[in-house]
Amino acid sequence: MVDFLTAVLKWMSNGGSEIAMSPKVHTQAFEIPTAVKGYELIAGKVPFSVVPGNHDYDALWTDPAFPPQPERGKNGVRHVGGLDGFRSAFSEKSQVFKGQPWYVGSHDGGADSAQLFTAGQCRFLHIGLQYHAPDASLAWARSVIGRFPALPTIVSTHDYLGRDGRRNLKSNPRQSRLDPHDNDPGMMWEEFISRHDQIFLVLSGHVGGQAFSVDKNRAGNAVYQMMADYQGRGQTVVDLAAPHTAIGDGWLRLLNFRLDTPRPHIAVRTYSTHYGKFASEIPEYGAWYKARDKQAHLSDEDFLKRDEFTIDLDDFHRRFKSPSALREQ
């Protein structure tokens, strides 16, 4: 009887989350079709990747060993599962990916994927990994690395860095596992990212705000890690004298690779498709967003530096040869 009750409790949904409703009718009927229309605008024009985050799964439930404690602001340990909705739009058979020469691999029905792209005179490998990538996803990613050895590699995943630039971990790392086969950000670093020297950049979101950090991998080389998430922003609604609604305001992160120089670097800028301006072109930028992004302690100048800065890739040519040599691979 105890085992039966434990099994039932383990599959009880977390009522505090919108993804407790499975399947999400509004997601299937509105969000996914709208997302597809957006990506169709760039389909066939540029290489791109879509990775699922926690809100892209079909269901969520809590672990009875670590239940939600709303009175203490704790959500408990949560499981997510099912990607039928995501795969309906972004599987390897999707019209936006099917037949594209730059889409070079997928796993788990497209939940994990790999692409090749060129910036300047340099060819890159990109690997997109699903939320808290399971062991099987990491094994697949290792096989992709094996297919394209020595190419500069970028990894994108949903949840990786917190605002403090540290990998998102629970106080007890073993409790942060959502499933026996899943890997939290620390595990992903230890089991995959730090072990492959050609991975030099990791991109993530999930947490509203921005972060950047650099860690040395097992070969002693730098891995640049960046988080940017603007989903909590809603100044466009405030401009209309309406109650705040988190709609993002059209902000996105742009990376300009400058590798064909003696001092290779990435120029990072943040741009709003709604305002038609970069963050540095809006004097009120800090006043609008730093409190919302939970960084009210920063000056406006320091807050802006989290969205517009330069990453110096001092070891890039040593690690990856010259751009022209990489282009020929």
UniProtKB/TrEMBL annotation:
Domain of life from the UniProt record: Bacteria
Disordered: region residues: 163-183
InterPro entries: Metallo-depent_PP-like
Protein name as it appears in the record: Calcineurin-like phosphoesterase
Originating species: Sphingopyxis flava
